[in-house]
Design a protein that fits this description.
Radius of gyration: 24 Å
Number of helices: 4
Strand content: 35-45%
Distance between the termini: 77 Å
Helix content: 10-25%
Order of helices and strands: HEEEEEHEHEEEEHE
Number of strands: 11
């Protein structure tokens, strides 16, 4: 028995709305990709998190600088600096640790977390430090007055690239902001690779 005309019209209308292709507005937005960071004259590379914002380096010894947008409830962005440098690994880790003080007066070195990894056949030392950060607005080697910044955290990495040099990544800021950026920081380190000879 044929269906009444009004059923046929209703069926046709439903098909128009449910079977029509998605418009540009309906399509899911493409996943934003992070910027590729070149080091060692392009012989090393890693990919920055997509939400990092490139900034002009505050010092000419810094090769790349980014900002991690402030977490909800915070007003200060996290700062990320990337640079090549020399010096013994432990001495540099100790320098980072000494930039922090603990509110209870305990030793920061006892609370800092240090881990050694192997990524792309390179040695990578990862540091996690929290406490009151003694900020040096003029730079760590310029001397001058330091500004205590309470409830700060720093994630650092020292990449040992044979024949290419050592590279330092420092990500610091309010603890909540750094915590929000921690997964991206860890993922970025895993993208480290050699891209040339």
């Amino acid at each position: 028995m044929p269906r009444p005309l009004h059923f046929q019209i209703l069926f046709a209308i439903l098909c128009i709305f449910t079977c029509a292709p998605l418009t540009a507005e309906d399509q899911p937005a493409p996943e934003k990709k992070g910027e590729t960071i070149a080091l060692a004259d392009g012989q090393l590379a890693l990919v920055a998190p997509a939400d990092w914002v490139r900034k002009k380096p505050k010092s000419n010894i810094i090769e790349h600088e980014f900002a991690q947008p402030a977490a909800e409830g915070e007003t200060i962005d996290g700062r990320i600096t990337i640079m090549g440098a020399g010096g013994e690994v432990q001495a540099n880790i100790d320098r980072w640790i000494n930039q922090f003080q603990q509110p209870d007066g305990s030793a920061t070195k006892e609370k800092a977390k240090v881990e050694k990894k192997t990524i792309a056949e390179m040695e990578v030392h990862v540091v996690d430090i929290s406490g009151t950060y003694m900020d040096s607005p003029a730079g760590p080697f310029a001397g001058g007055k330091t500004v205590p910044r309470e409830d700060y955290r720093m994630l650092g990495a020292i990449i040992i690239a044979p024949k290419l040099g050592n590279y330092f990544i420092k990500f610091y800021g309010p603890a909540k902001t750094v915590a929000a950026g921690e997964p991206g920081f860890a993922k970025m380190l895993e993208t480290l690779k050699v891209v040339g000879n």
